[in-house]
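Weekly structure sync, notes
Attendees: PL, DS, HV (note-taker this week)

Item 1: Glyoxalase
DS walked through the input record. Source organism listed as Halorubrum ezzemoulense DSM 17463. Sequence as pasted into the shared doc:
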Amino acid sequence: MTDAPPTTGLHHVTNICTDIEETAAFYEDVLGWHTVKRTQNYDDPGTPHYYFSSTPEGEPGTNVTYFEYPNSQGTPGPGASHHFAFGVKDEATLREWREHLEAHDVRVSEVKDRTYFKSVYFTDPDGLVFELATRGPGVTRDEDEPGGEVIDPFEAGYEN
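Item 1 (cont.): predicted structure, written out as tokens:
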């Protein structure tokens, strides 16, 4: 155990997009989130910085923010995020999300059993990988052989 001071959990995640309006439309129209703040990147004035939240209030822990850099297409690697996951209540809700995403012309993976939860994967307009994951059965469920399963979100023909 460390003597580090406690944290309250994840506050927000900040990503980079190439078109802030396209990203806003994705969050609002496809994911049903709320644009709760439009400002600028204080470290790079003039660069748009939008805050999207799963709730209208935008309280910490519900926000994903974006900086817009139109010419910034990159390659994932060390120092970059592979994907991030949003939680859903259960497998029935996960399947509803899958149908919803398909109805909005978003390519989405089949439901995948990840031992600790079930999930689907899709990408935003810039190719950032998202995951929707159920709460259970939870991380206390052990694999038969820990680390024995390779978990690849792009398996079974899912392409970016």
